[in-house]
Structure formats: C-alpha cells, structure tokens
Amino acid sequence: MLKINQLGKTYGDFQALKSVTLEASSGEVFGLLGANGAGKTTLLRTLATLLSPTSGSASVNGFDIVRQAQQVRASIGLVSGGMGLHDRLTGRETLKYFASLYGLSAGRTEERIETLNQQLDLKDLLDIRAGGFSTGMKQKIVVARALVHDPPVLLLDEAASGLDVLARRTLLDLVTALHSQERLIVYSTHVMSEVEELCDRVAVISGGEVLKVGTVNELVQDSGESNLERAFFRLLSEQKLLPAQKKGVVRG
Ligand SMILES: Nc1ncnc2c1ncn2[C@@H]1O[C@H](COP(=O)(O)OP(=O)(O)OP(=O)(O)O)[C@@H](O)[C@H]1O
C-alpha cells in the first residue's frame, strides 16, 4: 500500500529528509512520531505529491509519486495545515463541492455523504454553515472532506494539533472509527499518548531520518525503558550522541 525507498528531500542546501525507507499496509494506523522540525510534514507532503522528492522513490496504492502523481492524488485524502473551510457553505455543500472536484456523480456523492454521516456521526453538521461550527465540528468536516472520494489512504498531519480538549477527543475517536481493513491511515504527531492510543506501528523520525519502526510495545521493550516517551528520548539521544557507533551497528 505504501512503499518508501531511500526518499530524500532538500530545501536548498538543507536536507529535510535523509534516505527514508518505510513500508505500511492497508488495515494499519501507521504513526510518524517526531518533534517539531523532524520532517513529518515534508514526508507527508512529498507522498501527497505536493513536494517533489530530491532522491529515492515512493509508491502509494501501487502508484509512483513522481510518474503517477494523478493516480496518487486520487488514492489519498490529506489533512494538513489550516482547515480551509468556506464559512458560508454548509457541511453538505462543502462535501458536494469536493466530490465534484474528484468527479463523483451526484448519486455517488449522496451515497458517500450518507456513509460518512454514519461513520463519523456528522448529523447536523451537514446542514449548518461552517461559520457556525466549533473547532471540533470543523475538524470533523475536514476529515469527512478528505474521505469524500473514499480513498484507500488517509494522511493526517498533526491533525489534533491546536484543537481544544473536546475537539481533540472527537478527532481521536474519528480515527478509531475509520480504522478498517480497507484503509491505511498515516498519522503524524509529536504526542506520545496519541500514538499509544491509535497506532498499530510507528516510525520515530528525527532530523529527517527514521530512527526506528515497530509497535509501541516493541519500541519500549527494545529500548529497555519503561514507556514510549522514555524510549523516544533514548532513540534521539543515541542519534545525537553516537552517530558513528550507530552507523557502525547498522552497517555491521
Ligand atoms: N519550505 C521550506 N524551506 C526551507 N526549510 C524548510 C521548508 N519547509 C520545512 N523546512 C525545514 O525542514 C525541516 C522539516 O520540517 P517539517 O515541517 O517537515 O517538520 P515537521 O516534523 O513536520 O515539524 P512541524 O511539526 O514543526 O511541522 C525543518 O527544519 C524545517 O525548518
């Protein structure tokens, strides 16, 4: 479903992604865990074909992110950055507008809105204008909008960031509700508890590099630490303090 092979991205002289290699399958909620500036947004936007990679390759749903960008775009839903909702449009109008951009027929659009209504419990949101939404309501419609064309891959980039406690709970419950065998959800965050609650596996990213991939339990056990936060900081300190030794271990 998702294959990333030695993917690199530079901004001018600055290398934001350094040879990232990862794989994830449908049915997984796959976490990208990293501090601010680790490279999570760069990685997700490159996978979403909004940025061009400088080196390496990746495929999403079997499509190459450079040579088959259109097919990749049709295969993903992306939630990243601002919400970008039009205050005067109701939830239903927002979903219909995006469905039309994806070329869905009127009948298929109604079907999808009904399915999303059931999955995400949209109810009144469909008939209220976005200008009157709470933050949690807005985030629900933003997630529904990303799923209107029923993509097999959903990319969520720090989607809970900046939400109040109620809106954040709504989002985490949505991700749980969307967890299904047919879909891969890639969930980027810097919040350990979100990874612990949601993710089947997680990649720890720092300085544009993948430091470790595994389940939360594997990461904690392999580190010899007592919890994910401590395991995370141990990985980061090893990266900073022992680069030569770490490289030696990888090569050996
Ligand atoms: N357009 C750009 N030009 C130059 N440097 C950039 C650009 N975008 C991001 N960077 C740098 O690339 C690195 C990775 O940024 P990125 O936004 O991918 O990280 P992140 O893990 O998503 O962090 P955050 O959660 O803060 O967005 C950072 O050092 C950032 O300053």
TrEMBL record:
Presence of the UniProt keyword Transport in the record: yes
Domain ABC transporter span(s) in chain numbering: 2-232
Keyword field: ATP-binding, Nucleotide-binding, Transport
Pfam annotation, one family: ABC_tran
Highest taxon of source: Bacteria
Name by which UniProt lists this protein: ATP-binding cassette domain-containing protein
GO molecular function terms attached to this record: ATP binding
InterPro entries: AAA+_ATPase (IPR003593), ABC_transporter-like_ATP-bd (IPR003439), ABC_transporter_ATP-binding (IPR050763), P-loop_NTPase (IPR027417)
SMART domains membership: AAA
Keyword 4Fe-4S: no
PANTHER family named in the record: ABC TRANSPORTER ATP-BINDING PROTEIN, ABC TRANSPORTER ATP-BINDING PROTEIN NATA
Similarity-based family: Belongs to the ABC transporter superfamily.
